[in-house]
Specification:
about 170 residues, binds heme C, mainly alpha, single chain
Amino acid sequence: MNTQTLKATLPLLLVVGLVYLILSPSKYVGYAPEQPIPYNHKLHAGDLKIDCRYCHVAVDKSAHATVPPSATCMNCHGILNAASNHPDVQKMKRWYEEKKPIQWIKIHDQPDFVFFNHAAHINRGVDCSKCHGMIPEMEKVMQVESLNMGYCVNCHRENNAPNDCSTCHR
Ligand code: HEC
Ligand code: HEC
Ligand code: HEC
Ligand code: HEC
Ligand code: HEC
């Protein structure tokens, strides 16, 4: 290959590379780490039908959904003594008394150069399951959608949501 053809194909190679990066499947699909306390969404949000917002209080008010402090769990596992014989509940209560916060491992995680906003979606009626799958059926949370750029941009196109680069990259 001479320098002339190399110069001509280089921009093309860069574009192909970028498109590949953007469309490549996320390595995070299927990510379901062990948590310090095996918290069960199927039991709490499914069987007991506790509303998502009871714990993820900021999801319709801010960019972040937030994960609840142990105090929220203690509403039922404290005085009400729900499942008080269960070893995981006993561990949680011991940590709570020792004022040791539960170090939950983050599952869905966007790179810092991506701006995401929960409230913008929830207030437009986009359901949690669109991006997180059927959480009320999961004993252990697992990432089920790539949440990569193609995933975001396609849905924005279908819903006439803003799609210029600055919407998601600031
Ligand atoms: C009683 C409290 C509680 C309720 C109710 C609850 N969650 Fe959670 N949620 C948690 C806790 C604690 C975690 C962190 C541990 C984990 O990942 O399982 C979490 C984690 C998550 C995560 C993963 C967060 C991450 O790190 O990426 C998603 C998504 C989620 N919840 C969605 C939901 C949805 C949707 C509902 C309603 C169907 C719901 N949750 C109901 C307490 C709750
Ligand atoms: C609205 C009440 C309520 C809240 C809030 C709540 N739980 Fe529970 N939890 C229950 C009940 C009721 C059970 C027992 C269900 C059964 O045994 O049938 C339970 C069971 C459990 C168990 C035993 C595991 C199992 O599979 O039986 C663990 C661990 C647990 N909860 C952790 C948590 C954590 C961590 C939080 C906070 C993020 C939390 N719970 C918040 C009501 C609650
Ligand atoms: C349009 C897609 C989308 C919808 C709809 C959505 N989420 Fe998320 N969620 C995400 C993304 C993306 C992240 C990772 C955000 C980050 O890393 O900044 C996330 C992260 C989370 C987290 C981890 C804590 C945080 O704020 O980063 C929780 C908990 C959560 N979502 C709960 C919910 C609940 C509950 C609902 C419905 C009420 C919901 N999500 C709806 C895409 C979505
Ligand atoms: C299920 C469809 C869907 C998915 C998937 C989705 N979005 Fe959205 N997004 C919307 C809709 C609808 C709006 C609201 C547009 C409006 O209010 O006009 C929105 C709004 C936004 C906004 C606020 C725009 C503004 O300026 O008001 C941001 C930022 C955003 N989305 C980022 C993302 C990112 C990043 C992802 C991927 C992680 C994503 N979205 C995935 C449908 C989606
Ligand atoms: C609706 C939201 C959204 C819009 C609009 C958007 N992006 Fe992205 N972009 C993302 C997300 C989410 C990622 C992170 C993908 C991942 O982590 O897999 C990303 C990643 C990237 C990356 C890094 C490549 C990679 O896959 O890691 C580049 C470069 C990029 N975007 C450029 C752009 C440009 C240029 C535009 C405008 C033409 C644009 N983006 C518009 C959401 C968006």
